[in-house]
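Notes to self after the call with IL:
- keep both proteins in one doc
- input above output, always
- annotate only the second one for now

Protein 1:
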Amino acid sequence: MNTEAEIKQPKNSWKPEGHSVVASVKNLKKSFGEQKVLDGVSLDLYESENLVILGRSGTGKSVLIKCMVGLIRPDEGEVTILEYDVNTLTPDKLNEMRQLVGFSFQSSALYDSMTVRDNLAFPLKRNLKMYDRKEQDELIVTALQDVGLENTIGKMPAELSGGMKKRIGIARTLILKPKIMLYDEPTAGLDPITSTEINELILKVREKYKTSSIIITHDISCARHTSDRVIALVGGHNKPEKTFQELEHTDDPDLAPFFKY
């Protein structure tokens, strides 16, 4: 396992020139009762980019990505994912779009009553209508190898550590070969060593699967090691995006507290 210092660092000068936009959010607004959570958020995600959305707990990070995949309907604004206009999609078209987007939940969202194998087989049967066990096992073993856990195939979720559950959750998402990955607090609740392993895995997934990714986090180490660009959510708004290295030396009073480590 690599140490934290050995993780491949994103380039300071990463720029979107030459990369097409694969997801776009424009002036997104969402309130729950009197609480205004998102108040005009806009962003673009580019091909092959790891975009980190940084913010404190309760700033609307998870609400944002749930709006992006149609789990929550915004009050105002536009969301386009891989040329799909998310807010206008029929249920069938929404499911079609979601098959192209991998969602790694903060809780891993594994089915406790299923083995690891059956957890990974579930999306193959539900989404691809793949019922041949040999075909399933070929894809399941490959996905588990990609996250370094092929020996867990017969285990139950209760037998796995928190970090292992995160990896299995990512494997279950990768088995459908998504074009976009959404990671919701991928290192939350993990010890520093396991967090470093998850950061490495995020970079490995991008390299092997050529994914574009949005990484929701309040973990400054995760942001530092996985991001090409960083957008901070403050007060329902997004601050102008920059590289981590540019933000690291900011004197913006809303952002500076994140970088006092």
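Protein 2 (the one to annotate):
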Amino acid sequence: MPRFALTMLGLFLSVATIIAQSREEKVRDDKKKIESEGKWIYNDVPRAFAEAKKSGKPIVMVLRCLPCDECVKLDDELIDADKRIQPLLEQFVNLRVVSTNGLDLSLFQFDTDQSFAVFFLRDDGTIYGRFGTRSHRKNWVGDVSVDGLAKAMEGALALHNDIANVKASLAAKRGPAPEFASPELFPALKAKYKSALNYEGNVVASCIHCHQIGDAARELAFTKKEPFPEALLFPYPHPKSLGLILDPKERGTVLKAEPGTIAAKAGFQEGDAIRTLAGQPMLSIADVQWVLHNTPATGGVVKAEITRAGKPIEVTLTLENGWRQKDDISWRASTWGFRRKAFGGFFPVELPEEDRVKLKLPADKMAFLIQHVGTFVPHDVANKAGVKKGDVLIGFDGRNDILRETDLIAYALREKKPGDTVNLHLVRNGSPTTISLKLP
């Protein structure tokens, strides 16, 4: 091997080692710090339940993976550095879970694209509610807040103190029996991961991250000769997909019902305080998503008890077949797996308006900028077919009327099969071109 290549290889390995050590140190330092402070039970769910049974307190469980800088930042902002949260934490058994290895999936079911999730529980496994919502890759504004977390904690404490009267209404906050009892039992994870982190070896490599649960469930679904489940394609629909804009600083207060939407047709109004949805008490936007996630894709009726101007009122959400498809999934980490299946590994984003004008593309027709094209197996199929970063996609499999990436993914997964060939109509450097892509 030439000396230059050897030098570069050595440099690469050195940098990789430094990065790996940094990640390892981050995980180990976090464990050491939290355990030494003694405020949180660290990664020990049975101990937290035992302490709750002994003390009579409810449990607040914060699930965040390490070493994820974004969720560490959110955790610091919402919990560690806020004086409003501290007095509330004293009324809970505080549990911090940093991996999903061995997690009881019959109890802990949540949106696995979240890197920060909170559960409020009783020692018998009763769930009071959830907290933690996201509808953007990096921006959490509009979904969570310190005030919202504090109000959710207060609501959980109120339910805990009134358990005899509310327990029946909490039953549906636990989901159906999962396919696998814990994440490491999924076929896609079984060979690589154990039921606990490996602190004797490489901790980082032994960790099952939240999103890997969803990835494993989707990979399993792809192996079945059945229509791809809507609940896996459009999981935990955000209320705003129904036109219901909720205040992240409150438990379930309506900021706006977008005109002409499902929420507006149901009768929601600004200032409405949602007390229950489908009979379940609401502590946060995440609780609303839980109800929506468990509503069939074919539709249904979801009743809400609200308080309007101090008076109790009931409104009804009528969800028709296909209602889930109104949600946006393009921000989700899970979408990378869909892009591999649907597009061979390229990443399309809506073309900016000014670029549409320059290329003389109509506003009501497809126009996606290819922002990224995978170059490593198995995400390199489109790259090998000739798709390039900077191409503009104006037609897919004869369709030019699909305007959102979410809808393009859904079309490809529903209408095409692995091995099918689709024609991509592109604009490259101002000129039209067509590429045939064989789906992986």
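Annotation: The chain has three domains: 25-226, 239-326, 340-438. Residues 3-20 have pLDDT under 50 and may be disordered.
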